[in-house]
Design a protein that fits this description.
The chain has 690 residues and is an alpha/beta fold. It is 31% helix and 17% strand. The radius of gyration is 26 Å and the shape is globular.
Amino acid sequence: MFSKLDNKYSALFTPWKIGNVEIKNRIVMCPMGGTSLFGWMEHTGNHFDKEAAKFFVEKAKNNVGLIIPGIAPIKSTFMGQWLYENEKMFEELKDFMTEIHKYGAKLFIQITAGMGRSWAIPTPLVLIHKTPLLRDIIKPIINIPYQSASPSKLPSRWAAKMKTRAITIKEIEEIIDAFAKTAKLCQDAGVDGIEVHAVHEGYLLDQFTTKYTNQRTDEYGGSFENRYRFAVEIVKAIKGICGQDYPVSLRYSVTSKVKDFCKGALPGEQYTEIGRDMDESKVAAKYLQDAGYDMLNADNGTYDSWYWAHPPMYMPQNCNLEDVSNIKKYVEIPVVCAGRMEPDVASKAIEEGKIDAMGVARQFLADEEWITKLIENRVDDIRPCICCHNACFNMSHYKGVANAQSIYDASHISRCALDPRVMQSEKYKITPCKKVKNIAIIGGGIGGMEAAILCAKKGHNVTLYEKTNQLGGVFIAAAAPSFKEKDKMLIAWYNKEIRKHHVQIELNTNITDLNQIKADEYIIATGATPKKINIQGSEKIIEATDYLLNKKNVGERVLVIGGGLTGCEIAYDLYLKGKKPIIVEKQNDLIVSKSVCLANSSYLRDFFELHQVPVYLESSVSIITNNKVVITNKNGKELMLDVDSVISSIGYNPSPIAKKKKNVHIVGDAKEIGNLRTVIWGVWDICKNI
């Protein structure tokens, strides 16, 4: 099986043990919200989730060693049902475990005590919470004070003016008892172990452990032992009912990386830790081990520093390895490291005894076969996760708004922007075409290439027309910055995949009229054109794509018009290149978007604040001269700035070359400006029916 495996990955494929449970390899599929076997945010409460089960069986087939499904709230978000109350669910779980074991994988169920102040409350529920009558009416369906209950009265991470209530001792005792009862049902169903979620990421149990979030004066607050008591009593209760040999893992954040409420610390930043620092973590890890935990599934960060736990593309690869490796020195139990882990780096760290296993999550969404491809030395065939968070965890937040994501997205996280089939296997699937057609696709960007591959897989004859000399479209510009290495890999993957499926490619072919070509179906993927600014001196403006593609040189002081995601990424790129960026944005915050995850946006906001990048909100550029720019704020006050160059990133207008007809389909930005998810999913919505 491993005859083709590159030696640099060999340590990943050695067996290891968690307690008495042997795992066949060192690759752990880490939990992702939305992939719980007991449902996620369904209004019906807890149930055995057959879609999630199918999802994990496919991962087992593809050589994962240990699977940890996404968090299962010990008490369901909707309807308030305890997990252990649905015994039928555990009967179905038993049959599922038989299937998982058939492929040699092991599985731990992850259970959470709750979210506390980190609960990503959406704006509508914040408004309901502020109205006692409405709050009481909705309470049987969703109990907002319970869901957000924290160790102490604390500010919500998501709603600036919302205060959470302190959880009661009675509620703590009920949760501990529920953990034990649920763990026993899991054990009886053949589940290999339990993972307690979490002294990790700033969730409820973690909030108890850190001084800045725990101001209690009872037995669950104050001293070190009191702050960690909740997590300790949970593992003791589980061991008490399941036996000492039943493995219990702990999701663990080595350090919090927090400067203040809603203020994280960036890599390399000098700061004063107000959460768990390394000195405390050394003691805590040993203390939790001695309490009964059999593994630490570790990374860093909290929701206040969310880019450590859910690293965007701006974070370094293997960003948590140093801290996690350090903590392993102080425990005898296995330690797993997660956080943009690269297989070769993880393998070397395992070989050197720095960690015991590699934790991976979202790469399983982008390509469920990636381990199999690694074993078969087909690394170039692996579709990379680009850490966009467009679908898997796009909980967004900006000034004046709580979690801005749609209700649909809130209840359907852990989808994948690159593959709509993830957790949606019935809605999106490839079926052979009933009639072979000649398909003409105009535009070789991501949308055009995705359409070409999908139509070819269905059995159609596909010709792709691209006006330039290469495939990739505007994504080539988007992938240009140094921190977009995974984006570059994605373009390479598409180029390889499209040729593998024998798509006829016509480069340097500018189709402006469909009468130029003959086909049964036409798919228009011609993208969009930049919006223009009509002000004095606008001829001096450099378009965002021209900058990214190095078509235009910029000076030292560069003003970026537009503080959306692209504008902020350009400013970030400028700073990394040693330039002095300035951002001007009409909105009251940077990256005001429902589709950008807080993990991504908060990194950029924190970066600009730390490095004192000038940001002018609620402002616009009114005049551009040779070396100066005049900006005007919302009150009409003008300010003159010295600049060498001006880059515009104010958005795009769809640019289709034809109108939609029965056999003419418009996809991607040519239809509506969006992101990678809207482009790819939109292509599937059309092509699956052709």
